[in-house]
């Protein structure tokens, strides 16, 4: 599971209002190379919750991302920034572990890189 | 400029749609050739039925024509038409009067060429083909013949009025075309990606040709993000990934997500950016997430063989059993029960998903929304009548209406519709 996916998901148990961001519990993670595409990065940038991405990257041991985005247009011109962004967003890959709802503590297991977001009967 | 666009005679309703989509992808509408609705101008050869494989299309440039033809699956070729006629005398006249400055560069001494004789609805044997090629002597070919790797390919295409022999209205009328090939489909993709070459198949794995058509219509290309909410074994994502798109898929069934794994199966394509086990009925997108996918392509579940499922037990949702709590010690590894997911619900959820998650100014625009609404109301009003008349499909997809101006409204009658292979089309 890439951090892009992590950035899109929240806990959707009935009644949960604040299910984002999910905390990452990593048992095994790896880096998988993905083709670098500047246009994709630039267009996806505005859709990303930055703080959540920074925290998720840190939980996988990657601390290179700036804590805050001050001037996004000039940062997106910097290839150094884009490379880090690309690496954090697409190349860090959670293989085994869990995503944990910040409100209820519910564990969504991640196995073989695939998060299981399915709810139990009593959570629908 | 007008080009002759010859289609393979299959998946008739998808042929123009594919060319339109690719025209958009390759920027054919950027300089105002298409009208406001982003549609190409089409013409049919005289007295041809819309099902005819021969169409004339107005494209802004030869590059656009080549790109479209080379990427499409259903275009046999796009040709610069040098002449056409009902017989060879007419063809000769037409080709002779075609301007020399368009012809001579392709006939020069240093070029290599070949002439292909092709036919629709009839067979021309080898001897006859040679005779026909010889009869083209009036064209001043100066180059050398090269059958294997010619720089220029010229096509002589003949159709016959074969319909008169089987009692059905003819799809095509006898006509002869001569043109220079600008581009042609690469159908070698299909044997490469055919389903039997896969390691793992689901019960309703999408046929490779259909998957490529969908990817074309979704304008899948490098840097785009394509999502399939019913990913299954990932056959659709294979096609999107082949064209360089980033892919993402979800499915409620863990077997298919776990074992299918989409594009990486054995073609060396990049893995999907993400695979999820998730329920399209209860999506777990975070609040505020929107306009993130460039396209959503899917084959929604229906029927029995691979019917749709959603979260929540069948009995529970019906109220046949009281709500219960899964005991804490059994939570890990608990397999939640699912309930049937009707097509209506599924389509509803898909529209929700599309409205929220598709990027604006992509393929989906206000025009399409308006048109869909109109079609929907029309369908609601008339579908019973169409069903009785036995032309429900053609009334909805009305292939003729865009050509001869007969609108797709309720005034359908059997006689006005042409019949093809015993069915109203």
Structure description:
The complex is a heterodimer of chains A (124) and B (425). Chain A has 124 residues and is α+β, with helices and mostly antiparallel strands. Chain A has helices at residues 3-8, 38-45, 50-59, 72-75, 79-91, and strands spanning 23-31, 92-100, 107-111, 114-115. Chain A starts with a helix and ends in a 9-residue tail after the last strand. Chain B is an alpha/beta fold. Chain B has two domains: 2-186, VC0802-like, CATH 3.30.2130; 190-364, Vaccinia Virus protein VP39 (Rossmann fold). Chain B has 15 helices and 16 strands. In chain B, helix 9 links the parallel strand 9 (225-228) and strand 10. The A-B interface holds A 1-2, 4-5, 7-12, 19-21, 32, 34-35, 37, 39-40, 43-44, 47, 49, 90, 107, 109, 112-122, 124 and B 222-225, 246, 248, 252, 254, 257-258, 270-271, 273-279, 282-292, 311-313, 316, 323-326, 331-332, 334, 336-337, 359. Chain A: Interacts with TRM9. Chain A: This is Multifunctional methyltransferase subunit TRM112-like protein. Chain A: Belongs to the TRM112 family. Chain A: GO terms for molecular function: protein heterodimerization activity.
């Amino acid at each position: 599971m890439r951090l892009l996916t992590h950035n899109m998901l929240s806990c959707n148990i009935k009644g949960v209002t604040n299910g984002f961001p999910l905390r990452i519990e990593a048992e095994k993670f790896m880096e998988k190379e993905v083709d670098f595409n500047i246009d994709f990065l630039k267009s996806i940038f505005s859709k990303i919750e930055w703080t959540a991405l920074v925290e998720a990257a840190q939980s996988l041991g990657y601390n290179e991302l700036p804590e805050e985005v001050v001037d996004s247009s000039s940062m997106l011109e910097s290839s150094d920034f884009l490379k880090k962004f690309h690496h954090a967003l697409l190349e860090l890959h959670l293989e085994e572990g869990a995503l944990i709802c910040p409100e209820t503590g519910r564990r969504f297991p991640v196995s073989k890189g695939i998060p299981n977001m399915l709810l139990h009967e009593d959570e629908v | 400029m007008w080009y002759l666009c010859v289609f393979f005679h299959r998946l008739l309703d998808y042929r123009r749609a594919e060319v339109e989509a690719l025209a958009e992808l390759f920027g054919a509408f950027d300089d105002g050739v298409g009208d406001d609705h982003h549609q190409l101008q089409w013409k049919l050869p005289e007295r041809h039925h819309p099902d005819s494989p021969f169409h004339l299309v107005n494209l802004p440039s030869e590059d656009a024509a080549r790109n479209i033809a080379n990427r499409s699956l259903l275009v046999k070729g796009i040709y610069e038409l040098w002449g056409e006629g009902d017989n060879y005398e007419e063809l000769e006249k037409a080709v002779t009067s075609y301007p020399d400055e368009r012809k001579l560069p392709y006939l020069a001494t240093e070029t290599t060429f070949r002439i292909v004789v092709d036919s629709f609805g009839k067979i021309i044997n080898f001897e006859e083909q040679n005779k026909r090629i010889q009869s083209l002597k009036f064209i001043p070919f100066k180059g050398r013949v090269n059958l294997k790797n010619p720089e220029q390919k010229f096509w002589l295409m003949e159709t016959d009025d074969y319909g008169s022999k089987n009692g059905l209205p003819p799809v095509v009328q006898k006509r002869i075309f001569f043109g220079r090939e600008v581009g042609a489909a690469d159908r070698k993709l299909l044997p490469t990606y055919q389903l039997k070459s896969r390691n793992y198949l689901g019960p309703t794995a999408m046929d490779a040709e259909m998957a490529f058509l969908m990817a074309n219509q979704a304008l899948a290309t490098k840097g785009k993000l394509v999502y399939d909410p019913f990913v299954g074994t990932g056959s659709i994502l294979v096609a999107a990934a082949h064209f360089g798109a980033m892919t993402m898929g979800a499915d409620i069934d863990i077997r298919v997500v776990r074992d299918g794994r989409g594009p990486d199966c054995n073609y060396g394509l990049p893995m999907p950016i993400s695979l999820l086990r998730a329920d399209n009925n209860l999506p777990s997108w975070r609040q505020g997430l929107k306009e993130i996918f460039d396209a959503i392509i899917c084959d929604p579940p229906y029927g029995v063989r691979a019917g749709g499922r959603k979260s929540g037990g069948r009995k529970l949702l019906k109220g046949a059993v009281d709500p219960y709590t899964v005991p804490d010690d059994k939570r890990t590894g608990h397999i939640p029960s699912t309930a049937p997911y009707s097509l209506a619900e599924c389509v509803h959820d898909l529209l929700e998903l599309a409205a929220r998650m598709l990027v604006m100014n992509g393929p989906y625009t206000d025009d399409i929304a308006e048109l869909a609404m109109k079609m929907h109301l029309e369908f609601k009003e008339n579908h019973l009548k169409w069903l009785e008349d036995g032309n429900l499909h053609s009334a909805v997809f009305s292939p003729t209406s865009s050509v001869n101006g007969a609108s797709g409204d309720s005034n359908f009658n059997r006689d006005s519709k042409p019949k093809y292979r015993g069915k109203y089309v």
